[in-house]
C-alpha cells in the first residue's frame, strides 16, 4: 500500500559570478548569473493543530541563510568552491548540505534545483 506524504516547495534567486575550472570554453572565464533556486522538502506527518508540514516562513529563512554567502559573491572564492568547481550541480548539493541539518525531525530534503537561466537547471537528490 502506498504511503501518503506532503512536499513543500520554496524558491529564491541570487546573483553571483563564477568561472568554471577545467572547462574548455567561454565558461572558464569570469561571468555572472541570476541564479534561480528551488528547494523541495518532504514529510509524512503534520504538526498538531496548525497541521503544517513546516512553516513556509521557516523554510524560506533556511534557504535565505544558505544563499547568503553566495549572493553578490565571486563563488570561486567562497568555501568549498575555492576547491570545488562552482557548477550548478555542486551549488545544488551545497544548498542541500547547508539546509538539511536545520530541518525539523519530521521533514527531509527532497530536491534542490539550481538554474543559471530558465532553459537549463541541475537537480540534486539523495536516494532513500
Ligand atoms: N551541467 C552543467 N553544464 C554547464 C554548467 C553547469 O553548471 N552544469 N555551467 C556552465 C556555465 O556556467 C555557463 O555559464 C552556462 O553555459 P551555457 O548555457 O552553455 O552558455 P551560454 O550562456 O552562452 O548559453 P548559450 O545557450 O550557449 O548561448 C556551462 N555548462
Ligand atoms: Zn556560468
From TrEMBL:
Q: What class of enzyme is it?
A: lyase
**Pathway where this protein functions:** Purine metabolism; 7-cyano-7-deazaguanine biosynthesis
The record, for SUPFAM superfamilies, names: Tetrahydrobiopterin biosynthesis enzymes-like (SSF55620)
Residues annotated as the enzyme's active site: 27 (proton acceptor), 72 (charge relay system), 116 (charge relay system)
Q: What is its EC number?
A: 4.-.-.-
InterPro entries, from UniProt? 6-PTP_synth/QueD, 6-PTP_synth/QueD_sf
Q: Which reaction does it catalyse?
A: 7,8-dihydroneopterin 3'-triphosphate + H2O = 6-carboxy-5,6,7,8-tetrahydropterin + triphosphate + acetaldehyde + 2 H(+)
Pfam families according to UniProt: PTPS
**Record-stated family:** Belongs to the PTPS family. QueD subfamily.
Q: What is this protein called?
A: 6-carboxy-5,6,7,8-tetrahydropterin synthase
Amino acid at each position: 500500500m502506498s504511503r501518503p506524504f506532503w512536499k513543500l516547495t520554496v524558491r529564491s534567486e541570487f546573483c553571483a559570478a563564477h568561472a568554471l575550472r577545467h572547462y574548455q570554453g567561454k565558461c572558464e572565464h569570469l561571468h555572472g548569473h541570476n541564479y534561480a533556486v528551488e528547494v523541495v522538502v518532504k514529510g509524512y506527518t503534520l504538526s498538531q493543530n496548525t497541521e503544517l508540514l513546516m512553516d513556509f516562513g521557516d523554510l524560506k529563512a533556511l534557504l535565505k541563510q544558505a544563499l547568503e554567502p553566495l549572493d553578490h559573491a565571486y563563488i570561486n572564492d567562497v568555501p568549498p568552491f575555492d576547491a570545488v568547481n562552482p557548477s550548478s550541480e555542486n551549488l545544488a548539493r551545497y544548498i542541500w548540505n547547508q539546509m538539511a541539518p536545520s530541518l525539523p525531525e519530521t521533514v527531509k530534503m527532497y530536491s534542490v534545483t539550481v538554474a543559471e537561466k530558465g532553459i537549463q537547471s541541475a537537480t540534486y537528490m539523495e536516494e532513500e
